[in-house]
Amino acid sequence: MFGMQRGFTNLTPIYFFSSIRADSGKSTIVTNLSVYLSSLSYKVAVLDFDYSSPEKLRNSFPTTIEIKDYDELSSLISANDPRFQQNFYFTDTNKLSFFPAHKLKTPYELVTDTAFRDFFLQLSSTFDYVLINLTSGVKECASISDLLSKTYLFRGCKPSSIIISLPDERSLISLDSFIQNNQAVSYQAEENTYFLFNKVPGPTDVLELDDTSLTASDIRSIFTYPLTYIIPFIDELLEQKNKSLAYVLQNNSIINQHIVGLFRLLNGAASISYLMKEA
After folding, report:
1. C-alpha angle with apex 216: 15 to 246, nearest 5 degrees?
2. What is the mean pLDDT of the segment spanning 224-234?
3. Are 199 and 209 a contacting pair, CB within 8 Å?
4. b (16+ CB within 10 A) / e for 26-44
5. What percent of the chain has pLDDT over 90?
6. What is the CA radius of gyration of the chain?
7. Measured between alpha carbons, how far is 198 from 63 in angstroms, rounded to an integer?
8. Which runs of consecutive H residues, i.e. helices, occur in the chain?
9. DSSP 135
10. Measured at the alpha carbon of residue 233, what is the angle toward residues 145 and 235, in degrees to the nearest 5?
11. Cβ atoms 33, 177 nearer than 8 A
């Protein structure tokens, strides 16, 4: 049993979050989506592979959220143990579970290395949703595209890639170049690769966005893929960084509306016509 119904399948959703550029708001999206899913009584696991900013994602969670913190993933598997038939025990699964994996650097090990594969299979059979946060960069985005093509590695799972981009010209040009240079991404964009355009940037890109940000209409005219979502500039997201409250849990909040919309799209219950309009 997997608890509450997850869309149209009992396969465990595995969401790989990446971005072409740093400071695209990836941590904000992963944090709010995982908190929202946990509030629905789903068992949620978050794996953080972002070795470039090892504390960033964990520190993005509001302090009021109960989180079960695990040790570094590589340390959970002792080098002295047999490399087969390993059992892993997950406790307090009613809380959001957080697994730092900064020493692995690539999610390939999760599904190809014997010991890590045992962990991943047990993780995906225990939890309802698994969110995997990656380091930003073209290389990481391309590696996930390659990983998704190897469907035989994801027994019992439904893997998806969520590529997050700012809506400024520089980011959109970089994203378009990445798609053009990775032909498989265009095909995957019809099935299991989502493009999320986030207008709430990291602190280093705020001024740049003010001058070069494209409108939602402009973005949709350029990127016509069906699995596309746009999050407008939301003051609450900036306010939440300085407060302990989770606005995403408030039904009347703008954050909640957009995270619910994203979840509906990921869960197969929405089409491009449902996507939130620019505020």
Report:
1. 50
2. 87
3. yes
4. bbbbbbbbbbbbbeeebbb
5. 51
6. 18
7. 24
8. 26-39, 56-59, 73-76, 108-112, 114-126, 138-148, 169-181, 183-188, 206-212, 216-222, 235-240, 254-266
9. -
10. 130
11. no
DSSP letter (8 states) at residue 173: H
Q: What is the pLDDT of residues 129-176, one digit of tens each?
A: 999 999 999 999 999 999 999 988 898 899 999 999 998 888 999 999
Order of all β-strands in the sheet with 44-48: 67-69, 96-100, 44-48, 129-133, 12-19, 157-165, 193-198, 228-231
Structure tokens at 245: 């409250």
| Single-letter amino acid, residue 183 | Q
Burial code (b: 16+ CB inside 10 Å, e: under 16) for 198-209 equals bbbbbeebeebb
- Collapsing DSSP to helix, strand or coil, 14 comes out as strand
Residues 6+ apart with CB under 8 A from 224: none
Q: Is residue 180 exposed (0-12), middle (13-18) or buried (19+ Cβ within 10 Å)? A: exposed
* Residue reference for tokens 């930003």: 136
Copy the structure tokens of residue 112. Answer: 């190809």
Which tokens go with 166? Answer: 């700012």
Structure tokens at 30: 């992963």
Token duo for residue 62: 């509001």
Side-chain-side CA neighbours of residue 184 (13 Å): 12
pLDDT > 70: what percent of the chain?
Answer: 83
Which two three-digit tokens encode residue 266?
Answer: 């990921």
Residue 36 · residue 260 · CB < 8 Å: yes
Q: How many CA atoms lie within 13 A of 191 on its CB side?
A: 11
User: Mean pLDDT score of the chain, rounded to an integer?
Assistant: 84
